[in-house]
Amino acid sequence: MISLHIPGNKKIDDIKLIMFDKDGTIFDIHHYWCSIIKLRAEVFWKMFNKPNLVPQLCNAMGVNEETGKLKPDGPVGIKSRKVITEIVSQTLHNNDIQFSPDEVESVFKEVDSTSSDNLDDFLEFLPGVVDFIKNCHQAGLKLSIATTDITTRAVAALTTKKIEHYFTLIYGADAVENTKPAPDMGLMTLKETNIDSHNAVMIGDHIVDIDFAKNANLKAGIGVSTGLLSEQTLKTATPYVIDNLSKIKVTKNV
Questions:
Q1: What predicted TM-score, i.e. pTM, was given to this entire model?
Q2: Domain range annotation of the chain
Q3: Which CATH homologous superfamily contains domain 2-28+125-252?
Q4: Sorting pLDDT into bands at 50, 70 and 90, what band is 254?
Q5: H helices within the chain, ranges in order?
Q6: By C-alpha distance, which of 72, 98, 69, 100 is closest to 85?
């Protein structure tokens, strides 16, 4: 039996599967997404020759102009890509530019392509991540990804940082009809791994991840304050909150 030990004398027993959020949980969400958002905004600036679009689009996609970090309520990092393209399309419309969500998606794909050539520059591991993943793998736990990013970018990120082989499944928002907090990715993962929901947990940096765990009827949702929300905020949704993944101890009883 594998158990997870959380600070505060909390223990979650009989775990076989851990689902991970990606950005804010494994990778620094602010470094990654603020860089991508800026690239997206600059494409529109050059396309329409309107420099004022850059701050507007960065703000609309979720960058806090004062802190240079993502806003806790997103939308990037929380909402699906489809929602983001609609928001960008509306922002352009507010500037008298008629550009459909599908056309916005084509620009996003262009940025995906250009950024993928230097993806390592956008990715920074959060504290304790690599050792925790290795410990889980060595203990015999199955690991998976459930992210609001698209699947191809999630796979590319994990592959670039050479940790993809630790994960049995990698699902992005495009793999399901409804993204988090809907349980779709969780239910697919449980079905594919043939693991009961009460033997699985979700680790993420947002209440969306905790609600996802509840909606998928997982044993627990574990909040980590390395992303968008503070420990205090996460504790309103789950009793299992840590400040980084090194704080979780994995034990195996034979």
A1: 0.89
A2: 2-28+125-252, 30-121
A3: HAD superfamily/HAD-like (3.40.50.1000)
A4: low
A5: 29-48, 53-61, 81-94, 101-116, 129-139, 151-160, 184-193, 207-215, 231-234
A6: 100
